Amino acid sequence: MAEIPMVFILAGLTAYTVLAGADFGAGVWTLLTFPGRVGPAETRDHARHAMGPVWEANHVWLIFVLVVCWTAYPVAFGSITSTLAVPLFIAAVGIILRGASYALRGQLDEAAGRRTIEHVFAVSSILTPFALGTVVGGIASGRVPVGNAAGDLFTSWLNPTSLLIGALAVATGGYLAAVYLAADARRLGEPLLERDFRARALAAGGCAGALALGGLLVVRDDAPMLYDGLTHGAGAAMVVVSAAAGLATLALVWRAHLEPARASAALAVAAIVAGWALAQRPRLLPGLTLDQAAAGRTTLVAVIVSVAAGAAVLIPSLALLFRLFLSGRLSPGGTGGEPAALAPATARRARSRLRAIFAATTVFAGVAVTVLTDAGPLLALGIACLFAGAISMFALAATGPDHDS
Amino acid sequence: MSAISTVIRSGFALAAPDQDYLLQARQMQALSLGVHIPLVCFGVAFPAMVLFCEWRYLRTGDRLFRALARRWSKVMLALFAVGVVTGTILSFELGLLWPGFMANFGNVFGLGFTLEGFSFFVEAIFIAIYVYGWDRLAPRAHFLTGIPVAIAGVTGSLFVLAVNSWMNHPGGFELREGRAVRADPWAALFGNPFLWHEFVHMYFAAYIVAGFLVAAPYAWGFLRGRRSRYHRTALTVALSVGAVAAPLQVVIGDWAAREVAAYQPTKLAAFEGLAQTTSGAPVHILGWYNGHEVEYGIEMPRLLSLLAFHDPNATVQGLNAVPLADQPPVNVVRFSFQTMVGIGALLALLGVVYLYIRFRHRRLPRSRWFYRAVVLAGPLSVVALISGWITTEVGRQPWIVYGTMRTTQAVTGASGIPIGYATLVVVYLGLAAGVWWLLRTFSRVPLEADLDG
Ligand code: HDD
Ligand code: HEM
Ligand code: HEM
Questions:
Q1: Which CATH number fits domain A4-286: 1.10.357.10, 3.40.50.1470, 1.20.1630.10, 2.30.110.10?
Q2: Residue ranges per domain, chain A?
Q3: Best residue of A82, A305, A371 to probe chain B, by most B CBs closer than 10 Å
Q4: pLDDT of res. A334
Q5: How far apart, in whole angstroms, are the C-alpha atoms of residue A281 and residue A232?
Q6: What are B8-29's pLDDT values in tens digits?
Q7: Hey, is the C-beta of B236 within 8 angstroms of any chain A C-beta?
Q8: A52 contacts in B (CB within 8 Å)?
Q9: Strand pairing of A283-285 and A288-289?
C-alpha cells in the first residue's frame, strides 16, 4: 500500500520528463538554430509551433508529482523542499519565465522586443530542467537528510551527481524534442527541416548517451549506494533496457522511422526513472524508508481512490486532445465544419414575464433565508435560491432589449 | 510507528529554524497569492461568461455574439496560462516556505491539492481544445468542449478552498507530538462547516472581479465615444455579471461573518478591535486600535452584536479572551476588513443602480458618472478581493493551522529568503508588464477579424 503512491509519482515523473522534457528541448532548439539547412527564423518557428495547444497541460504533471508526494510522504516532502530550496526556486522562476515568454511570444510577430522574449524563453527552457535534474541528483545521492533544512543548502545540489543529472535532463529534453520535431516536419511535408532535426536528434542522443555512460563512473565515486543499485539486480535490468531503447531510437532516427522512434525514446526515459527508483528501494531519504515516510492508511487510500477517479476523467480527455492535435485538426489551417447558425428564437413577452417573477422570488427568498437561518439544510436551500436568483436575474439583464441601441 | 516518530523528533519537531525570515516568508506567500487569486477569478468566472455569449450565438444566430465569445476566449486563454504559472509557483512555495506545515499536516490536507490538480488538468486540456477549435469543430461540439472548462474552474477552486478552510477550522486528525496522525482527509476537507461560506463568498467574488474588470475597459471606451452595438453588448454582459453578484455578496458576507463569530471568535474580535468581551458590542468605522480600544472611530452602537449574532444585545467575545501571543495583528485585519466591506457596499450600490435602470428603462445608464464609476469598480473589486483574503489569512495568525500549529513552527529553516523574495518581486513585475502589454495588443486587433472568422 505504501508503495502505490510512489508508483503514481514515478509515472507522473516519467510523463513529465517525456512530455515537458520535449517542450523544454524545443526551447533549446530555438536557441541552437545552427548549423542547419534551414534558416534560424524558420527553425525557431517550427520549434514553437510544434508545441502548440498541448503545452499548457504539461506542467500539471509536475504539480501532480508534488501534490501526491506531499500528501502521501509528507515528511520526505518537507525535508526535500527545505534542503533543496535553491534549485527548486530556480526551477519555479524558470517555469514562470518560460510560460510567460511563451504566451507573449505567441502574440507578437513583428513587434520590438521579440528577440529578448525569445531568449528568455530559450534560457528558461534550459535552466528549468537543469535545476530539476539537480534536485533528483541531490535525492538520489542521499544528500537530503530528514528535517527542516537539515542538509547543506548548496552542496546538496552542487555536486557531481546533481550536475550530471541536470545536464542529462537538458540533453534528454533536446533529444526527445528533436525526434518529435523531425516527425512533425515530416507530417508537414518539410524535408529539409526534417533532415535538420534528425541530425540534431542524433547529436543530442549521442550526448545523452555519453553523459549517461560517463555518468555511471561519476556516480560510482560520488554516490556508491546508488551505483550499487544501478549495477545490480532489477536496477541494472532497467539500465540495460534504457540503453537498448536509447540505441534503438538512434538507429530508428538514422533510418528515418520517426513514429516508432518517438515511442522508443519515451521508453528509454521511463526505464531510467524506474531504474533510479529500483536502485534506491526501499530507501527514500537516508534513514527513512518508504514505509516510514508514508502517511496513514486512510490518507493513502484517499490518494489512490482520487488518482483512480481522476485518471478516469483525465485519460479520455487527454486522448481527445492528442487525437485532435496530432491529427492536425487543431493546428492552424486545419478544416472544420462551417458553423451553421440555428434558427433565431423569437422572444416571448409572456415567457420573459414569468422569468422576471421567478428571478424576483428566488432572490428574495434566498436573501431572506440566508440572513435569517444559521446552519443546516434550510441555509443550503437559501444559498441554492440565491444561485438560482442570480442566474435568472443575470439572464434577464443580459438578454433584455436595449432601447438605446 | 515508533521508528517514524524517532525520525520525526530528530527532524521537524526539534528543529528550531531561524525565525528571522518568518516575516519575509509570509510576505512572499501573500505576494504570490495576491498575484494568483485575481487571475484565477477569470478561471472561475470567465468560462461561463464566454459560454453564455456562445450560447446566445447558437440560439439567435447573431454573429456578434460569436465574435464576442471568440475575442474573450483568447483573453481567457492568456490569463489561464498566466494563472497556471503563478499557481505552479504557489505549489512550490508551500514546500519551500512552509516545510514544517507540509511535513506534519500534508497527510491531512494534501488530498485537496491532488484533486485540484486533476481539475486544472481537465481545465487546461479543454481550454486548449476550445480556443484552438473555433473554426475547426462544429458549432455545437465546440460549445460542448467549453463546458468542462467551466466545471473544472468551479471544482478546482472548491478543492483549494477546502484546504484553506481546513487551515481555519482544522479537523479530521489526531495530534501526536505536533504531527497529525490517523488522518481522515475526506472528513477534514469536505466535512468542514467552514468551507461553504468561503466557497460561496469566493465564488461570487470571482464573478464580481471578472464582471467589473471586463466591464471597465468598455466603460472607458463609452466615455470616449465607442458605443457601437458590439461595445454595448459586451458592456451589458460583463456589467450584468458584476451587478447581479455584488448586492448578493453583501448577504453572503453577512453569513461569512456569522460563521467566523461561531468558529473563530478571536478573529471576529480583531475585525472590530474589540478588546474586552462585551454585550451589545458596537462597530467603529475607521479609527485605530491602540491595544485597548479603538480611537478616532465613528461608533455605531450594538452593530457588531447585531451583525455577528443577529441580536443587538448578544455578548461578543473580546481579544482578551486569549493571551496577547495568540492575538492576530489587529490593525491589519481591521483595516482590510473595513476596506472590503466599504468597497463591497459601493459595488453593491453600483449594481443596484445599474439593474434598476436596466429593468426600469430597458437600456443602459446614460450618465457619464455611472461609467466613471464602472471604470473604478474594476480595480476596486480586486482590492476588495485581496483585502478579504488578508482579513481571513492575517486574522488566522499566529496560527497556520488554527489553534494547532503556529506559523513559526511551520516556516523553513533555509536561509536566503530575502533573495528569493526580491527575485520574485522582479519576476512578478515583469509578468504584470507582459500581461498588460498582451491585453492591449488583443484590444487592438480589428473587430472584423473576429466577425468574419
Ligand atoms: C470582490 C470581493 C469581495 C467583496 C465585495 C466582499 N468580500 Fe468578503 N471576502 C472576499 C471577497 C469579497 C474574499 C474572497 O477575498 C474572502 C477571503 C476568504 C473568503 O472566503 O472570501 C472574503 C472574506 C470575508 C470574511 C472572512 C471569512 C473568513 O475568515 O472565513 C468576511 C466576514 C467577509 N468577507 C464579509 C464580507 C462582507 C460583510 C462584505 C460586504 C459588504 C464582503 N465581505 C464583500
Ligand atoms: C482562493 C484560492 C484559489 C483559487 C480560487 C484558485 C483557483 C485556481 C484556478 C481556477 C486555476 C486555473 C488557472 C486559471 O484559471 O487561471 C488555478 C491554477 C492553479 N492554482 Fe490556484 N487557486 C487558489 C489558490 C491556490 C493555491 C493556494 C495554490 C497552491 C498551493 C494553487 C495552485 C494552483 C496551481 C498549481 C495551478 C495551476 C494548475 C494548472 O497547471 O492548470 N492555487 N487556481
Ligand atoms: C485558498 C487557498 C490558500 C491557502 C491554502 C493559503 C495558505 C497560506 C499559507 C500556508 C500561509 C502562510 C502561513 C501563515 O502566514 O499562516 C498563508 C499566509 C497568507 N495568505 Fe493565504 N492561503 C490561501 C489563500 C490566500 C489568498 C487568496 C490570499 C490573498 C491575497 C492570501 C493571503 C495571505 C496572506 C496575506 C498571508 C500572510 C499572513 C501574514 O503575513 O500574517 N491567502 N496562506
A1: 1.20.1630.10
A2: 4-286, 302-331+342-399
A3: A82
A4: 38
A5: 12
A6: 444 454 344 455 677 788 888 8
A7: yes
A8: 132
A9: antiparallel
